[in-house]
């Protein structure tokens, strides 16, 4: 319910268009590749780190509204889904997206809250 109360504070309408198309790298070296058509994102995510020490990939889909961005990755080799939301930093020296993320993974019944991990990433245009 807090979400519904928070959205009323959002600005009316949509923001001035920002083109997020291309490759963006986070602080760990992972690459989000965005293909933008209007306000819809598709693409691919390549994580530079994984439990096995190799890269992990996933299909990416999302939305943009002006300088706001949200995208979700469904991992190819893991029963996990990660979602990011963020905003392009207007005054950063290089184009930077500040994001928060949450990932959910499969767990045993009754352990659902243990399935959710959260963090933050900054992505810079490559």
UniProtKB/TrEMBL annotation:
Keywords (A to Z) from UniProt: Secreted, Signal
SUPFAM superfamilies: Avidin/streptavidin
Pfam families for the chain: Avidin
Taxonomy, superkingdom: Bacteria
Compartments reported by the entry: Secreted
GO cellular component: extracellular region
Single GO MF descriptor: biotin binding
Coiled-coil regions listed in the entry: none
Name by which UniProt lists this protein: Avidin
Organism encoding this protein: Methylocystis hirsuta
């Amino acid at each position: 319910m807090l979400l519904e109360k928070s959205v009323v504070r959002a600005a009316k309408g949509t923001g001035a268009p920002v083109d997020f198309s291309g490759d963006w790298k986070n602080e760990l070296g992972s690459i989000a590749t965005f293909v933008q058509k209007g306000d819809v994102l598709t693409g691919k995510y390549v994580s530079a780190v994984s439990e096995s020490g190799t890269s992990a990939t996933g299909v990416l889909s999302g939305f943009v509204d002006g300088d706001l961005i949200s995208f979700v990755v469904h991992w190819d080799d893991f029963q996990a889904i990660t979602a990011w939301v963020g905003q392009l930093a207007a005054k950063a020296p290089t184009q930077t997206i500040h994001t928060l993320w949450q990932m959910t993974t499969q767990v045993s019944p009754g352990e659902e809250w243990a399935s959710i991990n959260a963090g933050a990433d900054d992505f810079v245009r490559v």
